[in-house]
Amino acid sequence: MNWLTKLVLPKIRAVVAKKDVPDNLWIKCPSCEQMLFHRELETNLFVCRNCGHHLRLNPNRRLALLFDEGSYTEVELPKAVVDPLRFRDRKRYTDRLKEAQARGADALRVAHGKIGGVPAVAAVFDFEFLGGSMGVAVGEGLIAAARLAVLQEAALIVVPASGGARMQEGILSLMQLPRTIIAVEELKAKALPYIVLLTDPTTGGVSASFAMLGDITLAEPGAVVGFAGARVIEETIREKLPEGFQRAEYLLEHGMVDMVVPRAKLRETMVRLLDLLYRKQPAPVVVPLLTAQVRGAGEGAT
Question: Which domains does the chain have, with CATH numbers?
């Protein structure tokens, strides 16, 4: 029996034992509920192969997708006051921040590099950080991004993904709306390109400020963009909203965005736009007009 215990039994257990499967090996599409293999999903830029739904990208992948060869330099953002109102609901606001800061300092990441050889600064939101909400830290980050673009004479590209202003910071959060608008105006005063890529979702105070001020406004397919939620609007006006209301395609039909760009074509579209905006046009050729004397001589000859 010894050989059965020591040799055969371990082999049988190895065959029938349940193997450990990583939790993120398969991901369910939020739209069609198709199970997607994570490696295939990553290769496809986190777009569902079945229905084309664009899943959210984290800031690292977003920045790598935008910049040449995925190379960029991240910017350390100014420090903001933590918990200025000493806010508390079910948890202290400081505790919520500590939990979220495992992902990063706050809901905004800023980096600079080149896109198609053109200098660019990108400010990308992280929706997983408290819903990408905009507080003082995010406002400071956007101002820093705009001023860096002015300093480098670079384009500014902003990629919002946000539920709006951060309620835990109250009026201080709402004050970031005019502050970010002023930052955008500083950029436009220098005639530098400002491009916004609307992703799912872009709502609340973010959509009511810098997100809708782009010189060129792009959107990912299916992205929800608006101020208030559709349910709140329906309850307020007591009417059924149109099909696809607040989706990127609906906004394109009604002139609110310039282009809806699939993620696979985003980089080439961005490179083409920046090339058009930065291309040096040749000096026009000035052709002198014929003088009256020359015209008269010509008429006499005929």
Answer: 15-55 (no CATH), 57-278 (3.90.226.10)
Under 8 Å between Cβ of 44 and 54: no
At residue 25, does pLDDT exceed 90?
A: no
For the chain, what is the mean pLDDT? 90
Residue partners of 137: CB distance under 8 A and separation at least 6: 77, 80, 105, 106, 107, 108
Confidence of residue 102 (pLDDT cuts 50, 70, 90): confident
Stretch 66-76: mean pLDDT, rounded?
96
Residue 2 parent element (H or E):
helix 2-3
- Give this prediction's pTM: 0.85
- CA angle, corner 66, sides to 213 and 253, nearest 5? 45
Spatial neighbors of 53 by CB under 8 A, at least 6 apart, are 29, 30, 31, 32, 47, 222
